[in-house]
Write a structure and sequence with these properties.
By secondary structure, the chain is an all-alpha fold. It has helices spanning about 5-30, 40-45, 45-60, 60-85, 95-110, 110-150, 155-195, 195-205. The radius of gyration is 21 Å and the shape is elongated. The chain starts with a helix and ends with a helix. Keywords: Membrane, Transmembrane, Transmembrane helix.
């Protein structure tokens, strides 16, 4: 999976999830008028779906959901980078500079590039689970309030969407552990073959 295709899929996944959930809700509530379009192309002309997905993409909901997991991954990279450098982490070097050092090694080494494709595929699953958890929680809240206030008999789909949301959050933790393992494998390769370059890049970064 290339970076370009990854960006496209990350835009498409929320649309697919939203339309799927919209169809589930419409069918269970007996509201065929709210059924999702039958094709992705026709969804582009579905104003409610389009506006909702655009709003979702503009808001940092995915980022909020992934924050703790992202911190774990970056923290592991930072720890091993400082182990390779052979200096204690005084906390003064910005995270962005550490990540730049990490990515620079990948861009310079074909072996690391191949490994990064596997990591990107895992990252796609990771962000897709974040999308699934956020959108399912949004739908579960909608279902809960419409059921609570007697607007729709939406108790069953509330349970369904809430279950999907909780399950996807739990799966994110599993995928994060795999992501940490994959990035650690990259870093071990860097320790063996690119430690001099990492030390040189670090010296430049802290000037």
């Amino acid at each position: 999976m290339t970076r370009a295709s990854l960006k496209k899929w990350r835009l498409a996944v929320p649309v697919f999830i939203f339309l799927s959930f919209q169809s589930i809700a419409a069918e269970n509530l007996g509201l065929p008028a709210l059924a999702a379009p039958k094709s992705f192309e026709s969804a582009l002309f579905n104003l409610p779906a389009l506006l909702t997905v655009l709003a979702y993409s503009a808001l940092p909901l995915r980022k909020w959901t992934n924050h703790g997991y992202h911190k774990e991954i970056k923290g592991n990279i930072r720890k091993i980078i400082f182990e390779i450098i052979g200096e204690p982490d005084d906390g003064k070097t910005p995270e962005s500079k550490i990540m730049n050092i990490f990515y620079r090694q990948i861009d310079r080494d074909k072996t690391l590039e191949v490994k990064s494709e596997i990591i990107m595929s895992n990252g796609f699953i990771w962000t897709s689970l974040a999308d699934l958890s956020v959108i399912s929680i949004i739908f579960s809240l909608f279902s809960f309030f419409t059921y609570y206030f007697g607007i729709f008999d939406s108790g069953q789909i509330y349970i369904l969407f809430a279950t999907i949301g909780i399950a996807s959050l739990l799966l994110q933790s599993v995928v994060t552990k795999k992501h940490v393992k994959l990035s650690t494998e990259q870093l071990e390769y860097m320790r063996d073959y690119r430690s001099a370059e990492i030390k040189a890049d670090f010296e430049k970064a802290r000037r």
